[in-house]
Specification:
By secondary structure, the protein is an alpha/beta fold. It has two domains: 3-50 and 307-381, Urease, subunit C, domain 1, CATH 2.30.40; 52-300, Metal-dependent hydrolases (TIM Barrel). 30% of the residues lie in helices and 23% in strands. It is built from 15 helices and 18 strands. The protein has helices spanning 78-85, 88-93, 98-110, 123-126, 158-168, 182-185, 187-193, 211-220, 228-235, 241-247, 265-280, 286-292, 295-300, 328-333, 384-395, and strands spanning 3-11, 19-26, 29-31, 37-40, 45-49, 51-56, 114-119, 136-137, 142-144, 172-176, 201-205, 223-226, 250-253, 318-322, 340-345, 348-353, 368-373, 376-381. A hairpin with a 7-residue loop joins strand 1 and strand 2 (19-26). Helix 3 packs across helix 15 (384-395). The structure holds fe (ii) ion (FE2). Fe (ii) ion is lined by residues 55, 57, 120, 175, 204, 256.
Length: 412
């Protein structure tokens, strides 16, 4: 069982003023300072809750994105699926196994400070593989693909899935209103009629919501996952985020898969800030973006008692970033993959600078490897360099995946 204390860093947790202090880890949870191992951050780091990505498809993370041809944006997601399957990118991707793609996606999360993610895919296809990832892909959710007559029928039906969510205190997660056909424009009315619009709902995209829909969603206490990059890439329109925030909707951020979305959540946060500026001529606020990717996301997953902030008793899900900016919120919003110093999942360090090896009593566990990120030697759970090399071999050339911040051929 791990017992250690992070010292001399500034602790940044949603809803609290950042403060200089110590943060203990005892077993899987955050505690008061404890144990004999003291990790001295030397006053150059911020300690945050690790990030939560509310929307991804872990089998679909490959590059480059595939989207509308000749500038003709889509009306619904359906033609995208056809374009993807017909693309050279898809052919190339198909040389990797499902296991390869899931493992790469796990590292897409890890290298962007994300320790909790939802793989929007049916349980029967992902329940065995999710526990093999280096991060937490939640299993406690119910699902519908999109709640339209032509969706992919991923669950047992909207009412049944929603009822299971309510019974278990889980989220009911579905794409919703991803487009502008008649069904997408009336999706909230449909859910209202079915009596399933409530605070268990986590709606992905929501680009066709009317002002009235937004008010209904706010009143119901439902959450939305804003996937700005993916929306603009496919539809050239995104959700009415400012109205949603003003109405009090619990807004979170999702990357979507990198087949249409950003490289990772750090890139998505930056993109969404810029998008908001372009749409509304004002700044969304760095602290708001931080909240959307921590506590708001934890709430959307019905995990607010477990993660999303650094309160004692919650899981030790921690992201330590180099302090490049004196404002901790600007610091995280502007951070890149190279700024991560340490990433902890449920008390267990899964990625970090080798100066923190004291946490492991100086000896790296057998299921960890080391890689060079920039000029820093990092320890990491699993073997991402081996995975990257093997993927390149299968693809047949030196494929660059921009969500992996290292060059595997250097690792020997
Ligand atoms: Fe999606």
């Amino acid at each position: 069982m791990f017992e250690y204390t992070l010292e001399s860093g500034v602790i940044v947790s949603p809803g609290k003023k950042p403060y200089s202090g110590k943060l203990g880890i005892k077993g899987e949870k955050i505690s008061s300072p404890c144990g004999s191992v003291k990790i001295d951050l030397k006053g150059n780091s911020f300690i945050y809750p690790s990030l939560i990505n509310t929307h991804d498809h872990l089998q679909g993370n490959y590059r480059p994105p595939v989207g509308p041809q000749n500038g003709n944006f889509y009306l619904t997601w359906l033609p995208w699926d056809n374009d993807l399957k017909a693309s050279d990118t898809f052919k190339e991707r198909s040389q990797l196994t499902r296991e390869d793609l899931y493992a790469l996606s796990g590292y897409k999360c890890l290298f962007s400070g994300v320790t909790t993610v939802n793989d929007h895919f049916p349980h029967k296809f992902n329940s065995q593989i999710l526990p093999t990832l280096p991060v937490r892909a939640i299993q406690e959710y119910t699902i519908e693909h999109e709640c339209s007559s032509y969706d992919l029928k991923w669950g047992d039906g909207i009412e049944i899935e929603h009822e299971i969510a309510v019974k278990n205190k889980w989220p009911f997660i579905t794409h919703l209103s991803e487009g502008f056909d008649n069904e997408a424009m009336h999706s909230i009315e449909k859910l209202e009629k079915m009596n399933v619009l409530d605070n268990h709902c986590l709606f992905i995209h929501c680009i066709g919501f009317s002002d009235e829909d937004i008010l209904k969603v706010a009143k119901a206490g439902a959450s939305i996952s804003w996937c700005g990059f993916s929306n603009m890439f496919m539809f050239n329109v995104t959700a009415k985020v400012r109205k949603m925030i003003k109405a009090g909707v619990n807004v979170t951020i999702g990357t979507d898969s990198s087949a249409t979305g950003s490289a990772n959540l750090l890139a998505e946060i930056k993109y969404d800030r810029e998008l908001y500026r372009n749409l509304y001529g004002e700044d969304i606020g760095a602290e708001n973006l931080f909240n959307m990717t921590t506590i708001n996301a934890a709430k959307a997953f019905w995990m607010q008692d477990k993660t999303g902030s650094l309160d004692e008793g919650k899981l030790g899900d921690i992201l330590v970033l180099k302090a490049n900016n004196s404002d901790p919120y600007e610091n995280i919003v502007n951070a890149g993959m190279h700024d991560i110093e340490l990433l902890v999942l449920g008390g267990v360090p899964i990625y970090g600078e080798t100066r923190f090896l004291d946490i492991f009593n100086g000896k790296l566990p057998g299921d960890y490897t080391q890689i060079k990120v920039g000029n820093k030697l990092m320890f990491v759970k699993g073997d991402p360099a081996g995975l990257y090399k093997s993927a390149r071999k299968k693809i047949g050339f030196k494929k660059e995946l921009d969500f992996l911040p290292f060059e595997p051929e250097q690792e020997g």
